[in-house]
């Protein structure tokens, strides 16, 4: 058996990757996982490279709920909202909370300092509520537009992976807007982990498209749409906040996923 065991340095690397993936799951979901040993500070940044895999799993869970709803002959729009609700339960509405806070901050704060102050407030204001309704409605409508449930599931998996792969890109290219926020404590991921995130997202998107019988252009379209959505959020944050926060991450994920779903629904339309 010893001859079949990986060498010590490879076992150590696999153990480190497994711990990073576990930390990514802990960070992005409410699943009851824990690490045997507390993570070192740098692991919080490195784990961002595995965000697309966690996002794909979240999308797959939502796709399962959607497929079950359609199998029960529920209206497609109802199935879409049920899928979104299942994903929000799985993540603890982490990204939705960020979207609402950023919308309130940018909509109600005339200055950078005031916007950041509003974003710390846990209460949801008018701009935040409107953003949540708009984004949830657009995502559910996009899911309802898919005539084939397999396409909707593939779209959710792609959207989950692509949207979360863009978060380490934001952290790698921008500075935190605060020195004491969650984003600042997360740190900037190494370039190799950013490349890992993008590579995993590309692989997940390609595999999802192939499983659903879609052409190779579909993953490219999904990546372009997601990048445009997250890029728009990042540019607004850079202009108004001079950096990113955890709320910017949440908003970027929500907008990117919405863009992916809308683009794929349009491409799949007869």
How would a textbook summarize the main sheet?
none
Helix content: over 70%
Derived from helix and strand composition plus strand pairing, the structural class reads mainly alpha
Output mean pLDDT.
Answer: 92
- Quaternary structure annotation: single chain
Order of helices and strands: HHHHHHHHHHHH
Q: What do these coordinates show?
A:
This protein is mostly helical and 270 residues long. The protein contains 12 helices and no strands. Helix 3 runs antiparallel to helix 4, helix 5 crosses helix 12 and helix 8 runs antiparallel to helix 12.
SSE layout and pairing:
Layout: H1 8-28, H2 41-46, H3 51-71, H4 76-91, H5 94-108, H6 112-120, H7 126-144, H8 149-173, H9 182-186, H10 191-211, H11 217-241, H12 246-268
Provide tags for this entry.
270 residues, single chain, globular
Compact summary:
The chain is mainly α.
